[in-house]
Each structure stands twice: as structure tokens, then as C-alpha cells.
């Protein structure tokens, strides 16, 4: 990834499709690529980026939490540490905080 950034790539570039519009950080979280996630965070990727539906990266991590609690615990903690907004709502008024209350109640501990 360094080579792309060296030549001016935008670290916050989103997919140009009309279906998802994920940022690179979204993709690292969804595909469970911890190395890419840490690299992007280190390089200053926007932790509050939203996809085409307004879903934040933190919301994606909370939504997928039950798939791999160890991985997503690390991701959620790092995102919050880096300033992710737990109340950032998607296009339907749903935030990472409300998701935690509804589908992953044991995630709530990270928001206190």
C-alpha cells in the first residue's frame, strides 16, 4: 500500500460502485485483515468514514462482532481509541451504539 500512497492515492477513497461504497478501512474490517487495518489507522484513515448507506466502520465491526469476538474486540477498541463516533447514524438512524444494544449486547461494555 505504501507505493500507492507514495504516488498520491487517497487513503480514504471509497469504492465507486452504487452498491456499497466502502472505504479501504471498511474493507479491512469486513474482510478481517488486521494488518491492513492497522496500516490504514497508522496512516490516518478516517475512522468515521461511512458507506453508501451511511454505515460507519464501527457499525460494521459491531454488526460482525459475533462472527469473531476476539478480532472485532480489538477492532472496536482501536476505532474508539482513534476517535470513532459511537453515535454516528446511518441513513436509517442506526448507530454503532444502538446496534450494540440490539444485536451484540456484550459490545456495550466498550461504549461505557
Protein model, in words:
About 45% of the residues lie in helices and about 0% in strands. The protein has six helices and no strands. Helix 2 packs antiparallel against helix 3 and helix 4 runs parallel beside helix 6 (about 95-100). It is globular, with a radius of gyration of 14 Å. The relative contact order is 0.14.
Per CATH, the superfamily is: Ankyrin repeat-containing domain
Q: What is the CATH architecture annotation?
A: Alpha Horseshoe
- Write the element-wise H/E pattern from the N-terminal end onward: HHHHHH
Number of domains: 1
Global morphology: globular
CATH topology: Serine Threonine Protein Phosphatase 5, Tetratricopeptide repeat
Q: Work out the strand percent.
A: under 5%
Number of separate strands: 0
Radius of gyration: 14 Å
Which runs of at least 5 residues are low in confidence (pLDDT < 50)? none
Q: Total helix count?
A: 6
Q: What number is the mean pLDDT?
A: 87
CATH class: Mainly Alpha
Largest sheet: none
Task: List the topology elements.
Elements: H1 2-6, H2 24-30, H3 34-42, H4 57-63, H5 69-81, H6 96-102
Helix pairs in contact: 2-3, 4-5, 4-6
Amino acid at each position: 500500500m505504501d507505493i500507492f500512497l507514495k504516488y498520491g492515492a487517497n487513503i480514504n477513497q471509497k469504492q465507486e460502485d452504487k452498491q456499497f461504497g466502502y472505504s479501504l478501512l471498511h474493507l479491512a474490517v469486513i474482510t478481517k485483515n488486521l494488518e491492513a487495518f492497522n496500516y490504514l489507522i497508522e496512516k490516518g484513515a478516517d475512522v468515521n468514514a461511512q458507506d453508501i448507506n451511511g454505515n460507519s466502520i464501527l457499525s460494521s465491526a459491531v454488526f460482525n462482532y459475533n462472527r469473531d469476538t476476539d478480532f472485532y474486540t480489538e477492532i472496536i477498541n482501536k476505532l474508539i481509541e482513534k476517535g470513532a463516533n459511537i453515535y454516528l447514524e446511518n441513513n436509517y438512524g442506526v448507530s454503532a451504539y444502538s446496534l450494540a444494544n440490539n444485536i451484540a449486547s456484550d459490545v456495550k461494555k466498550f461504549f461505557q
